[in-house]
Amino acid sequence: xxxxxxxxxxxxxxxxxxxxxxxxxxxxxxxxxxxxxxxxxxxxxxxxxxxxxxxxxxxxxxxxxxxxxxxxxxxxxxxxxxxxxxxxxxxxxxxxxxxxxxxxxxxxxxxxxxxxxxxxxxxxxxxxxxxxxxxxxxxxxxxxxxxxxxxxxxxxxxxxxxxxxxxxxxxxxxxxxxxxxxxxxxxxxxxxxxxxxxxxxxxxxxxxxxxxxxxxxxxxxxxxxxxxxxxxxxxxxxxxxxxxxxxxxxxxxxxxxxxxxxxxxxxxxxxxxxxxxxx
Length: 279
What we know:
The protein is of the alpha/beta class. Helices cover about 45% and strands about 20% of the residues. The chain is built from nine helices and nine strands. Helix 1 crosses helix 3 (about 45-75) and helix 8 (about 200-205) packs across helix 9 (about 240-255). The protein is globular.
């Protein structure tokens, strides 16, 4: 990856395209997951369209993976030229407690790196260890490249996170995945009941923080990281309604770039009691 970091971006993206095509052909079980997710969420679209999105999904997955080479090992001036933060950037400035809602688009590491480097505020995030020690160390070191990011493991509790949030650190929260039934509630996602962790409204309430969504779009020049306006009157008094709002808002952004969302994840693996599995 350090060697790949030296290549022109077009070469890196071409390598990602090639590997993405190979993965689409060979990773049959994961391709079925992607196709099932797209069928559940976009039943109104023809099968041919969903297949195109699935192929693009694997390409973007591979391109984002190889982009981590220059994100974490490339020269700083390269990052400045390839990572463009747009939108309501002022929402991330100052010291007001802020939870960043960072959905699982393939550019989420690019967004985290850009904010960590360009905004200049301390950041905290929650980290899931990887099975491979070498990959785990690489991801951990890469995400902490600029030093002002502290990663907490999921089993470390929330006290330190809340304390950092109240002291002015940005909380980079990825709360749109299926983490099992233990702490999840079922709210609609594209009309399908989806086990969703209600951590976004809970952290915002505990930290007395505003919620600012940030999404990343892969472009030929690098990434456009859009800072959206803070949600008004959020969270409310109903955790379920707040979590459902998060999913509805996310659907609107996914609709603008369907193939850049992390459909390789079994988003609907956990089912309500009595419902059959979908995968």
